[in-house]
Write a structure and sequence with these properties.
With 131 residues, this protein is of the alpha+beta class. It is built from seven helices and four strands. Helix 1 links the parallel strand 1 and strand 2. Helix 4 packs antiparallel against helix 5. The N and C termini lie far apart (45 Å).
């Protein structure tokens, strides 16, 4: 069993990678951060489709939190005052707003500072079926 949580992110996305590097330097969360492209997702109990879609926080016991709640868990594990912010992100209605903001950023990450066309999310399965 792992001793610490794992933060799984998109290593092909410059914005995602820069964000994780910032968090590691400034927030110093208690977790192992790894790009999904270099991770045994099956061992973590995570599908590739989910890893492509959102950042994931996988606990040592195997619980998986995605998107804004993964960010909340990261903040809860950080130093200084960041756990207070993380706790707020878990409470309704802040949780609902955080989900919306996360989705907005995730869908536009290729437009964010440091983002490139490679950062764009893959099309959803429904969009892939369109002629």
């Amino acid at each position: 069993m792992r001793r610490q949580p794992v933060l799984v992110y998109d290593g092909d996305c410059a914005f995602c990678t820069s964000s994780v590097q910032f968090a590691e330097r400034r927030l110093r969360p208690r977790c192992a951060a790894t790009p999904w492209q270099f991770t045994d997702l099956a061992k973590l109990g995570v599908s590739r489709q989910r890893a492509e879609h959102e950042v994931l926080w996988v606990t040592p016991t195997g619980s998986v939190h995605g998107g804004a709640q993964a960010v909340a868990k990261l903040l809860l594990s950080a130093h200084r005052g960041w756990p207070v912010v993380g706790a707020l992100l878990t409470l309704p209605p802040v949780r609902w707003a955080a989900h919306g903001v996360y989705r907005l950023i995730a869908h536009n990450r290729h437009r964010m500072p440091g983002g490139t066309a490679a950062c764009a999310l893959p099309p959803s399965p429904a969009a892939r079926k369109q002629p």
